[in-house]
């Protein structure tokens, strides 16, 4: 439009002027008058002046019209902007009053809760002090009897004030007037505000609320709470204030009682007032907002209207295309969100997201089911979290501070912790955490996944207990098989002990005609007693070796030499070897390090393997019968060292069908066997990190080999 006025207007004016100069004389002068006569000088000059005035009038009118439109636009924009600012300010004022009302109602509920359970004075003061520590707008709470005499009180730890008991107990004090009104209306009553001097020479406006304690329809006392109006504004309103706003409590005449806000920021001030009506008192909440003058430059560029009109079609086309793409993206996003939601709801793994301050921002249903808290009670929570056991809360809080500070990344393999359900039961969880990175590559928080491993721990404990019971059963079965061997072996030392004892008694008898035994007899008695002791020690070693084997001990790993392992089981091995006519050959490589193992369990492995080897040679056709026991260094590297134990026999070997199921639990080829020996042997060896296997021996027989880790001294 501007371009049209600027370029087309003068052109049309020139055309109309030329036309006037050509047509004017034809209409104003008689046809017979010449065009250049002297009588034409005045009309032609007048016509030029009229044409110029007309053009100037049109341009003036056009400029006035454009200026009027611009001024109108500026005025309307300013009015609209001012109305919007005023509307926002009024909404903010109404929201502030609503927040204060809610806070006051919540405080009344907390005051009523102080009397729950009919507490004594000490318990009441403790509850009141705890309430004052969480509600900063309250500076004092009093418990008064029906005569308004003070029974107990508590003061805020944040603002110690000098309280004059005589002034507060006066007949016309604000406290008395509020409690009198509360008794009359049988409900909470607020007093008028009053000025409370401070130790630093300043002061603050206070307001009392008196809450009657009603029991069985009668007033049994009063609770009096003191509000600091300045703190009410600071804690309940100031956090939501903008930087260009200030809020204050005023009386009906406009006197300001408390003020919170920033200094003046802008050229125009807007004011909104909201009546804050309380039982017994009425205050006015005033909010002032500073705003800069409306921006004139965008409103005066009328030419932009044309440009915007021309560009509107293009923008609409672009918007239609963009809207289609947006709708398609929204559908795809909706499908992706629905898929993710279904996937998260089907998970049994708990998920939890936290921001950089440790505040929970998301939990999935599996996590809520795991801890027993709904998502509404978890989202937004920070340390200490409700599912932390109280005995571990301090430890978890310190760990969270370290984690949120970024000084320690969580281990990729996860870590185990203990959580508490809503009913108070504890359960172990496995935690895996990873940083949350947004689309811009910024670290915005942490995502954690949680697995409830209580059932796994229970199964592991049952498995361990069952394994120990099976091992104990196997040891008892082994002892049962050796009972006959023990009776045969113990008969020899016991018979020798009996013979030596009888011979010693006979030697102690003096010869006929002598009063004392001869010195030679005494020497023979000494020898007999020594042999009795040796035979008794031999019998004790046999019994002790069996007792140590059968006794159930905790599984502890310790460095044990191969010689010590065989020394513990050889007495038992030789019992069966002598009965079956087997010769035992032991060969231990020199310079071997000790094995790091559970001594009792490895001894059982050696006993099971040697017993099976000797039983495989219990055949009259097998000669000679040799049990070959060897220990040597196995293949090792810089970080691990291993020892190899081998038990070889000269029996008939193991058939292929039996070898396939050789280590299957409860599979046995002997009528009296239980089928647990080799299965337990493999379990014990694998628990130590080694392996157990067998192979055929040339020219006949079988060799069983297993490995154990060697003990390595720590580097200095």
UniProtKB/TrEMBL annotation:
GO terms for molecular function: ATP binding; phosphorelay sensor kinase activity. It is an enzyme of class 2 (transferase). The keyword Transmembrane helix applies. It comes from the Bacteria. Residues 1-41 are annotated as: Disordered. Residues 485-712 form the Histidine kinase domain. Residues 413-465 form the PAC domain. Residues 335-391 form the PAS domain. GO terms for biological process: regulation of DNA-templated transcription. The keyword Nucleotide-binding applies. Pfam families: HATPase_c (PF02518), HisKA (PF00512), PAS (PF00989). The chain crosses the membrane at residues 56-76, 300-320. InterPro entries: HATPase_C_sf, HATPase_dom, His_kinase_dom, HisK_dim/P_dom, HisK_dim/P_sf, PAC, PAS, PAS-assoc_C. Keywords: ATP-binding, Kinase, Membrane, Nucleotide-binding, Phosphoprotein, Transferase, Transmembrane, Transmembrane helix, Two-component regulatory system. It catalyses: ATP + protein L-histidine = ADP + protein N-phospho-L-histidine. Its EC number is 2.7.13.3. NCBIfam families: sensory_box. PANTHER family: PEROXIDE STRESS-ACTIVATED HISTIDINE KINASE MAK3, SENSOR HISTIDINE KINASE. This is histidine kinase.
